[in-house]
Amino acid sequence: SKQNGKSKVTRFTSAMKSDFLLRTELSRDMHSALDQQQFQLFYQPIVDQQGQIVKAEALIRWRHPRLGFISPAEFIPIAERSGLIINIGEWVFKEACQHLQQLKQYFHPDFQISVNMSPVQLAEQSSIFQDWHSALDKKGLKGRDLVVEITEGVMMTSSDEIKQRLLSCRELGIELALDDFGTGYSSLAYIRQFEIDYLKIDRSFVDNLEKDGNAQLICEAMISIAHKLKIQVVAEGVEEPGQAQLLKRMGCDYFQGYMISKPIPIQDLLHMPNQLTMI
Ligand code: C2E
Ligand code: CA
Ligand code: CA
Ligand code: CA
What we know:
This is Diguanylate phosphodiesterase. The chain contains twelve helices and ten strands. By secondary structure, the chain is an alpha/beta fold. An eight-stranded mixed β-barrel has the order 1-2-4-5-6-7-8-9.
């Protein structure tokens, strides 16, 4: 009826308005959040086929004094629009560097931290990889200690200049991972062109692995092509032993997900056993 239609419009408008206000508030508060140490870096362990923790992905958390925990999925896009992602990205990198020493000591000298890089960072910071490499060097760390995760969109839309920028991490030893693989306009040509080291199979494929034969075929194909291109594969969002079992049989190299651990503070990571019984 007409009445229902009207109330729907009203609800939609007020939802939009509060959404706008929330974004404005978050955007404003984010500026002081760094100084006030409201951000925290969590780590999600990544295991190899033997169940050994060999890497961890750094995932940012924001504890807002009034609104509580805010998901990065919510505030990263806002930070990208305001430009604050540059400061946040630098903070994430510095924090990860601080923790790298301890993690290498605790787990293994080859332990790597994986950080997410926004397309905005890559576009705005012309010498980001060189800068990061010299910061690592000053701490006695190597480029190889770091993996940078980018998404497909970065490769698809980038200018030649940014392509060169991405390729520059090769000679610095910094490894590249292609995040959320399979969700965008994946092109195998791009993967080859950028000399990606790791391909991260998106959670959506892993989720359906046990129920959906097509998801199995797709995972199998992705792993097989990746390996032919000498790219290692990380499965994201592994929650069930059955999923890990299937992926392992397909030759998947690394596993990440709630089955192994949720993202946790550094102190908790430094209490995890080196070796997990995987499957
Ligand atoms: P992402 O890079 O794809 O990170 C994986 C997300 O999946 C994380 O969400 C993680 O907590 C979640 N996850 C991991 N295992 C499982 C699982 O088994 N089941 C389920 N249901 N979820 C799982 P989170 O931490 O909320 O991060 C969301 C997104 O925010 C990240 O997606 C990434 O795109 C972005 N992000 C997080 N930290 C940073 C950062 O420091 N910089 C930038 N630029 N982006 C970040
Ligand atoms: Ca990621
Ligand atoms: Ca991902
Ligand atoms: Ca994602």
